[in-house]
Amino acid sequence: MTDNIQVSRFLPLKRVLVHDVFDTGFNGWMVIMPNFCNEGFEQSPSIVSKDQWPPCMLSTATFRYPGSHGSMSGQYSLKISTRNVCSPYAEKPAPGSMGHGIKRISFFRKGKYLQFETWFAYTAEQDVCDAGGDLPGLHENSVRCFGFGWDLQERGGNRYFAGVRYLNAVDGKPVRKWQLIWPWAESDKAWAYDTEGDWCVKGVDPFWNGKRYPDGRHEGFIDVPDGHQDLCYNETDCKLNWQYFRLLIDTEAHEYVEMQCQDKIMDLGRHPIYGAPAYARIEGLMNPLAWVETDAPRRSFLYLDSVVISQE
Predict the structure, then answer these.
(1) Chain centroid to CA 290: how far?
(2) Furthest C-alpha separation in the chain
């Protein structure tokens, strides 16, 4: 009965594959680590450093003034965080300016539709007041973006990154819109910030690859139609509001179908999902993931109360 009540706050498809309630533990979610696959257990050389990304945590969402928030309906949520470092938006991400959580699973049965659902909250660290301006202690624009999706590879086919991000702010200026993963870089070299010979391949790992531009464009993302949305961000950074998210994709047609945040439903117009060349040894991959990036030299946090992955 308890499990049924918890699932009732979601809108799952016919077959529930994952119902992770982080009050019970990590449930297999962890940080994305470098690939330690070279001699001496060294990571693959790349222009992007992942060894400074903070680990995922089980958190009671503790802050200076209110103490511990707990989760939406319990004590612990999954906390994904950044370090207090940041590059300007148009530069490649600074080491530690992003945080990722991923669950490593695979398909066990074919199905047409795949859906990601979560209840989430986000905030920045309430460390020091900014100089001047309205509400100098409200660091809402310190959160650059956060997002949800999958890393997928079909058997005998391509590798696909499918997901959306909420672009909250660019260099301290509010943006507040949803964007879906769609790589539009000209080449693998452009995808790797004009670097020759990097392991980065167009379409793979769009969170930190793909050029960025001062106006908020990113060569890994395009805007969701009617995707502007002001989310619930309370009067101080130590107040959390839990919000609902849902993303539906078609894994047979390789298309985006629909997304929802709070009570707003957005038609994704059957936009195609980009397929990159397959990688060795990961056939049948179906890894759900979430990430957050900071827009200021201040830590930013994404909290997941619970996650449901379903299929039909």
Answers:
(1) 3
(2) 57
Q: How far is CA 183 from CA 2, 201, 206, 213, 217, in A?
A: 42, 11, 7, 14, 11
What are the Cα distances from residue 69, in Å, to 27, 60, 83, 242, 248?
21, 6, 21, 11, 30
pLDDT of residue 172: 94
Pairing of strands 300-311, 77-81: antiparallel
- Do 102 and 288 form a contact (C-beta atoms < 8 A)? yes
Q: Phi/psi zone of residue 205: left (φ > 0), alpha (ψ -120 to 50 degrees), beta? A: left
- Could you read off the pLDDT of 184-230 as tens digits, one per residue? 999 999 999 998 888 889 999 999 999 999 999 999 999 999 999 99
CA–CA separation, 66 vs 283, rounded Å?
46
User: Which two tokens mark 71?
Assistant: 């989760």
Task: State the Cα torsion 204-209-213-214 to the nearest 10°.
Answer: 130
Encode pLDDT of 28-75 as tens digits: 999 988 777 777 777 777 777 777 889 999 999 998 888 899 999 899
Contacts of 132 (CB under 8 A, 6+ apart): none
- Read out DSSP for 156-213? TS-EEEEEEEEEEEETTEEEEEEEEE----SSHHHHTTS-TT-S--TTS-TTT-S-B-
> CB–CB of 261/11 below 8 Å?
no
d(CA 107, CA 285): 7
Name the one residue in this structure whose structure tokens are 């070279």: 38
Backbone φ and ψ for 258, nearest 5 degrees, come out as -160, 150
